[in-house]
Input
Amino acid sequence: MNNSKILIATDFSQKSFKIIERVLEFIHNKPSELFIVHVVESSIFSKVKNLSEIGKNSFEVLHKYFPTLQASQFYCVEGKIDEQIAYHVDKLNISLVILGNSGERSHINQFFLGSNTKDIVRNLNTPSLIMKSNRPLEFNTIMIPTDLSDESKTYIYEVAQFLKTAKIKLFYSYTVPFENRLNFYGLDKSEMTLFQKDIKTSAINEANDFFDTINIANELELITQEGSLDAEEFAKKADELKCDLIAVHTTGHFSFFAFDLVEHSHKNILVKKIN
Output
């Protein structure tokens, strides 16, 4: 993450201040690499209106907690949160957006007065790190689910370039038709066994072929597993493998899976929309 520009969206909660604190520790207190944005939503702005005064007061609070930060690194703006974050990402040439979460479990986690991860991520062309863990930021081992697509390969390369020293574990799951389904199709027991074996072998070979095409400097491992891709089970697997970070893209097979992970995993999640 050398020379990366980081943008943190804050709502001035203690949780968001903890995130700023951990990020400053992670970048070794080089505040020039960090920008902070606070968005006053339009519905609130219509009541208070004096954005300049809000920005001044907000930065005074921020500077009290983090004296190394300069006013030039803080943006207090009015509008829709997802749109303003996307605008400042482009304006400042940001490499990484860091978002906190409210911890709600009943639906997709919401951010900053109702804006949610889907709205924010879909408006960005840069990765978003969704902070789920209270531990210090560590990126020693990364778990990346793959569907063996070109989009997946592109994302793997981006993550490897972004976190050059981290170990990367690629996870590929595949499904084999159930016996009762094959029986319905008219296959006998021996035919079922052979057919299932062929599908399993073909899936593993396809995954290995994909793995062999990945050319990165990071230590790389492929994990294959029979069964459908499930966010809750994947999160448990990441725990078992002691991964520090889950990295997932939001296109194709993973559009819904990525956001399910936000709900089920307590690990930090790096999410990017791949066009």
User: Anything to note?
Assistant: The domain at 141-272 is CATH 3.40.50.620 (Rossmann fold). The radius of gyration is 22 Å.
